[in-house]
Amino acid sequence: MNINMLSDEDKMPMLETTLDNLREGVNVVDENGTLIFSNRASADYAHSTVSKMIGSQITEFYPRAALLEVLRTKKPQLDVKIEHDDGRKYVVNAVPLIINGKFKGGVATFRDVTEIENLGQKLELLKQELTFSKVDDAFELIVGKDGSLKEAIIIAQRSIGALGGPRHSVISGESGTGKTLLARAMFYFAKKIHVISEDASFIEVNCAQFTNPDIAAVEIFGSEKGAFTGATEKRGLFELADGGVLFLDEAHALAHYQTMLLKAVESGKIRRIGGRKDIDINVIVIAASTKNLKNVLLPELYQRLAQYEIKLPPLRERPLSEKEKLLNCFIENYEYNAGDKYNVKLKIDFTNEAKGILLNAYYPRNIRQFRDITYATIDAAVPLISDVPASKKVTAVVDINHIPFYMFESSGSDGVYQEQEEPKTIESFNFDDSKMDREEILNKIIFTLNEKGLGPRKIARVLEEKGYDIKYYQVAYRLKKQRNSNI
Ligand SMILES: Nc1ncnc2c1ncn2[C@@H]1O[C@H](COP(=O)(O)OP(=O)(O)OP(=O)(O)O)[C@@H](O)[C@H]1O
């Protein structure tokens, strides 16, 4: 029996059952972006139901859907990585839906790669640990050490190494500005100067990851058997960090347990949830947050934690020279990984235009986003491992066409330090520094966006959001001039 032997009536339920049992999400939209089909996995990812989704605009559930690009350009979007506002990451394949030769919308299949990415991040931390253990100065790996982060690093060193003994500290800064990296550097610094022992632990916890504050409390303070239904005897993170550093990332989420936290940092004692006796702990607490902890925590707790207050500036406030250094670090890492994983001798070159666009873009999620977009750009320029020549030597030139399209989209921001920069006029960009002709760059952006299906008004809007002051008719004029010169 094959599918054609089924009646039309039977075919549909069979297809629906098949699609509903896929782990991949599936969405189908008509040419207006209205969902005409979603499978169960897609509804689960969107925290909705299939019946609620069908008939609605896809943007209600997937604001950055790759299908929007398919509708705009009528071209496939393959292996696109999209990060949604809730932090989940998806790899999407979206293609036009052509019926009887006519464009009718688009079909997307996608899978959630958040867990894989998180594992990748853990691996990165392990690598970082290896690197830290090799350098003499733990802060050496931090780009900006002698520049925009000089002050922050001096305070960090004092918090660990002052003669009065190590103190707790607070690191604040937008998401992706390097709070975890700095906390780790402080931990290695403490080891190097023998403030903590060689086998001391660095325990890191993202306090915002817990859906329920009670679960967070059990994780952090531990629990005694029978403290609540199903409770087991459990050592909390404070106990695990004893003798070392406890890094409380997104510490504002601990607001429910401030008195317990206060006791821990004030008297060096904790009590497990449901426990009757205090346990002595000797821990350096580094609390980090994207929010201003002063406004969230009890004043006495804030005062105890923020004995040293370290502020990390957002990427947009760091000088171009530091951004270039970061870019070079990302490129070196990429080349190193190709050698390490596949034994490929990879050499990556960037055209000035591509470099200029990456360096001048606005990254609401700061260095992490700058890194991820750089890697995605390089991904598009290098061959697949299956196409690498037998010599295992590869040179890749990254140009403007390799930059992912979503770079040019307006990007949302999060966190409290996210004030937009003053819109810059085109003239105020210092293109001389990056040895580029600014007119050439602007034209390239305009033509690339136009090739991707955007009209002058949309292009002007995108450029305005990126800080370029240009009117739609100026864009139209440039496009017309270009077209005439091509005739
Ligand atoms: N000054 C820097 N020099 C080199 N790399 C950096 C620097 N700052 C951050 N990075 C890199 O950027 C990425 C994000 O940094 P990190 O995780 O420390 O940020 P974060 O502020 O802790 O982020 P979040 O608020 O999301 O927890 C990491 O890969 C880190 O190594």
TrEMBL record:
Stored CDD domains: AAA, PAS
A GO term, aspect molecular function: ATP binding
Pfam family, one: Sigma54_activat
Ranges for domain Sigma-54 factor interaction: 142-379
A biological-process GO annotation: regulation of DNA-templated transcription
InterPro entries in UniProt: AAA+_ATPase (IPR003593), P-loop_NTPase (IPR027417), PAS (IPR000014), PAS-like_dom_sf (IPR035965), Sigma_54_int (IPR002078)
Gene3D superfamilies, alphabetized: P-loop containing nucleotide triphosphate hydrolases, PAS domain
Protein name: Putative sigma54 specific transcriptional regulator
Organism expressing this protein natively: Tepidanaerobacter acetatoxydans (strain DSM 21804 / JCM 16047 / Re1)
